[in-house]
Amino acid sequence: MKGLPDKRQLLEQVKPHRESWDAGFRPSDLEPVGQGEESVWDYPRPPILQLAPIELTVRFEETFIARSSRALELKETAGAPCPYFPPDDVQRDWLIPNGRLSVCEWKGVAVEFDLAVPDGPTLHGAAWMYPDPFDDLPEGYAEIAGWIAFYPAKVACFAGEERVRPQPGGLYGGWVTDRIKGPLKGSPGTGHW
Asked: Where is the composition biased (Basic and acidic residues) (predicted)?
């Protein structure tokens, strides 16, 4: 994809940030975890990809934007799971690249999209994807190359019948459900997590 920074140079730039992570840190106010629940503090760093345990959907009003039982959830310490949808399970014609890029120290460069639903508004910055993720780690981020993720603060996202809530702070795209226990990064005072 044109306009992306050199992948190898970028990888060298993010390595110090990767190495600065304190794997022993845990906040003092961990939420208790019951049967069928997960603590975000049990997720690893670097993050892992796992098949979502339930069908996931993204809608604008009654219009389906994405629906999949094959989505992969990215799970990273302190963050809510962030699902990536296979391109064939997404209304890709409605996604418009908006020129914004962001960088993850684990996955590489993400391209952001606006969502233009026919006969509806344009939702700015509603989705993103990694066109060419880093492939230097065994976690297999290349598997989500071209897969689409959605911000639940911008569109209605569902895990089964449960409408998910956005991860705090507006930066992260994690999908917060009742089965996820924190505290979650993104709130004030969590920048070092």
From this structure: 1-21
